[in-house]
Amino acid sequence: MTDALQIVLAKRPVGDVNGDCFRQETVAIPALAEGQILVRQRFLSLDPYMRPRMSELHSYTPPFEVGKPLTGGSVGEVVDSRNDRFAKGDTVIGMLNWATHTVHDGKGLRKIDPAVAPLPAHLGVLGMPSFTAWYGMKHICKPKAGETAFVSAATGAVGQVAGQLARLAGAKVVGCAGGEDKCVWAVREAGYDACFNHRTERDYGAVLDRLCPQGIDADFENVGGPIFHAVFARLNNFGRVAFCGAISEYQDKEPMAGPPKMFTIVQRRLTLQGFIISDHTALMGEFVNEVGGLLKAGRLKSRETIVEGLARAPQAFMGLLKGENFGKLVVKIDA
Ligand SMILES: NC(=O)c1ccc[n+]([C@@H]2O[C@H](COP(=O)([O-])OP(=O)(O)OC[C@H]3O[C@@H](n4cnc5c(N)ncnc54)[C@H](OP(=O)(O)O)[C@@H]3O)[C@@H](O)[C@H]2O)c1
């Protein structure tokens, strides 16, 4: 059996993540114990939630351990099995190491049909980020015709689906993204009514007043910080916020203050709801039916950035925190 290449957390970042936080190791793959499988990985998903997990503070998931491999959503094929649930040749998805191979007890892994869609799609538009967008839009934002929905990180893995679902629900959809190319894609391909570049736009309030003259009824919040503060001030009566993430704050050394005038929540009868998608796995089947159906019918577009080679994962992850990815960021492991 060959060795495995893996990437471990070398040290915890303080502020911005840099290359010193990662170390590449070659390790011998151990013989399987009863109940274990060996997965040869094909694709690894890189996601913003990995940044809070690199810090010591316990969030909704435990922190990564220093000296141990980082983990993430990954798709691969079972190449050896001593577990009755999995056979050699099965394609599986679940949390695996940042590695070429992972020995696993199979818990939390599920088999997928590789014929349904290209493997990276199972980590993006048919996977966790898209499920997150679907849940937040359907169960919290609930946009409808005549309303205005706003989506930050509009072309990201989550945002691109969230925006399209709001449009399909009949709402006007406005977003923001970190580049002209991303904004053009959002409008031309994903059907946003408008999208502004948050890197060049200095006055978020003014641009929102221009693009959302009727105010905002539903906000799918991915970014937090000043963009959210400007959106919050423009929420209409009975507005809904699906609090999905706050990526602009993940590298801050101190937590950022919330928006001013919190009594607005009462005055405008707002609903602000945070959610973690892993609490809603029971709805996965419903999601796959609905979103899979939209994809099949050509009613949903998706965009990915695929990086070649596990060794490039740290650099790609640091880039994700600066907006260098365009759509779902996936590492192709075999290169
Ligand atoms: N609650 C949950 O269960 C759950 C599940 C999945 C994801 N999330 C959250 O959803 C959000 C989006 O995740 P994703 O997977 O779709 O990521 P993603 O969009 O694929 O990648 C992150 C994007 O965030 C934007 N960004 C990065 N730093 C920024 C900053 N300082 N200010 C503004 N934008 C910034 C960048 O896009 P631009 O170039 O457009 O700025 C970057 O491409 C994240 O906050 C993530 O933590 C939550």
Report the radius of gyration as a whole number of Å.
20 Å
DSSP, total strands? 15
Bound molecules: NADP nicotinamide-adenine-dinucleotide phosphate
- By CATH's scheme, which homologous superfamily of the largest domain applies? Medium-chain alcohol dehydrogenases, catalytic domain
- Unreliable stretches (pLDDT < 50, length at least 5) are none
Q: What is the rounded distance between the termini?
A: 19 Å
**Name of the level-1 CATH class of the largest domain:** Alpha Beta
The overall pLDDT, averaged over residues, is 96
Whole-number tally of structural domains: 2
Order of helices and strands: EEEHEEEEHEHEHEHEHEHEHEHE
Helix content: 10-25%
The largest β sheet comes out as: 7 strands, mixed
In terms of DSSP E residues, the strand content is: 25-35%
Provide the CATH architecture of the largest domain.
Answer: Alpha-Beta Complex
Q: Output the CATH topology of the largest domain.
A: Quinone Oxidoreductase, Chain A, domain 1
Tally the helices: what do you get?
Answer: 9
